[in-house]
Amino acid sequence: MAQGVADSLLAEGLVRIASEIDGAFDALLPVPEDARARLVEAMRYAAIGGGKRLRPLLLTSVAELYGVDRGAAVRAAVAIEAIHVYSLIHDDLPCMDDDALRHGKPTVHIAFDEATAVLAGDSLHVFAFEVLADPATCADPFTRIELVQALGHASGAQGMAGGQMMDLVAETSEFDLQTVTRLQQLKTGALLGAAVEMGAILGRVSPEGRTHLRGYARDIGLAFQIADDLIDYEGDAATAGKAVGKDAGAGKETFVSLLGPERAREQARLLVDQAISYLAHYGKEADLLRAVARYIIERDH
Amino acid sequence: MAQGVADSLLAEGLVRIASEIDGAFDALLPVPEDARARLVEAMRYAAIGGGKRLRPLLLTSVAELYGVDRGAAVRAAVAIEAIHVYSLIHDDLPCMDDDALRHGKPTVHIAFDEATAVLAGDSLHVFAFEVLADPATCADPFTRIELVQALGHASGAQGMAGGQMMDLVAETSEFDLQTVTRLQQLKTGALLGAAVEMGAILGRVSPEGRTHLRGYARDIGLAFQIADDLIDYEGDAATAGKAVGKDAGAGKETFVSLLGPERAREQARLLVDQAISYLAHYGKEADLLRAVARYIIERDH
């Protein structure tokens, strides 16, 4: 695949999914005409119009490999993105990372207030499971319950939230490379893995048949986090749309502090090549997933 | 039913469910041997050994009317209690109600720290849906997805979290009786209603057949909140196990401020009588539900 073709495939994919996810959040989160309006406005503020929509792009791209109905895939994608957005709202709170900027605009607790930010995060959290459980996502209850299980497992104490806890502990501990890898597999990798898994669930791919896709997801998850560490190390806040240089400031070990920037960059490249090799038995139809893998380490935010 | 019999039925029911819920949380939340240990310890601290377990008692009592397997009912009860506990952890945060005491012991953000409290709440939140989605709860995926839907709907922006938002707004607004009623129906009533609904879902009661149970749940939900307002108005912190006198201090309108304590008490009594009347076509097997309804307004914490 020529680089120009891959670039335009990716660019189209990113634009398409961004518009679909914004549209779905807009339709699924109408503002009520009572005192709850402020809550739903905060949910919409956080959920609509920001972020790369990487998890939705992964989920819908995998679903497309198996001919899944686009509407179903987009609903599942909205659910996983709602989990991602809720985790960012809570992560940005003063008692957590205390960030004032997210996707280039004030964080929810700055734009609204802390209590509203806590509740907006909580509400997007449960919203994700409501969307998945709704028959509108998919008529088959077994598929829906599998989606709930996959997303629940990836986002709880043994997944994303567990990784966030390890991240808090990292500020006062000296983690080695193995522990940092484990931390990142939980904090970021679990949800990226769930995106791929949920696409496969919708495609009714057998658990055995998901092995290659799991390998792909695991490798891009780690590459993603190394790229994030590099952006934090050398990026600028205006491009990143969020504060940078925070890890070193917090005395946190990262892939960059443990490997150095050159070896970290090399490691990310190897992981992306390896991820793409897992897609070897797919044809052109997996070109978007290949382009996403490369994008993971080429993005600057 | 003689008062003494009802009392001992209720006392036995409360002791039994408390032990079952504690046992289930203990078994389902093993502490991992890595940096996530602190997170799971905070979840266990909040979830085990506290609270009246009213929602689990309601859910299992309804399930028992329809001969549901006790293990399945207890798992669903653990899920709804996890939602209740997560909401208390977040509600107690400094940016929300800023409470230092809950069930007679320091709140999670005091015993641990704020960031851990946010994450422990988030983790118990998703834990609830993981438990429901697990085949161990019930082999039939349709029943499991219905449980997820009922709990999701009751706890999100159109249920509990929406009520919490209205509660925040109430501190700076003058709500009338109708708005306070609506607030409480969302904040407390939705989850109490879900407890009854989930018991009925496990019992495969047809949606039409659930009308009486819904009436029962709606009335005890409102009675519960009036009783809570009365405890806040006239109780003492040692008995309540939490701070009291907070509503008046915050200038919040409650059933007591709007109706006066005497009319509020009378209203709660009427609601309990009405709730019990919805159980008229059940025999002795609903005696525990009748006793729970009376307990709602007779408790002092």
Explain what the structure shows.
Chains A, B: It comes from Novosphingobium mathurense. Chains A, B: One of its GO terms (molecular function) is prenyltransferase activity. Chains A, B: It holds the Pfam family polyprenyl_synt. Chains A, B: Keywords: Isoprene biosynthesis, Magnesium, Metal-binding, Transferase. Two copies of one chain form a homodimer. Chain A is mainly alpha-helical. Chain A has one domain (3-298): Farnesyl Diphosphate Synthase (Orthogonal Bundle), CATH 1.10.600.10. The first copy, chain A, is built from 15 helices and two strands. Chain A has a two-stranded antiparallel sheet. At the A-B interface, α2, α4, α6, α7 and α8 of A face α2, α4, α6, α7 and α8 of B.
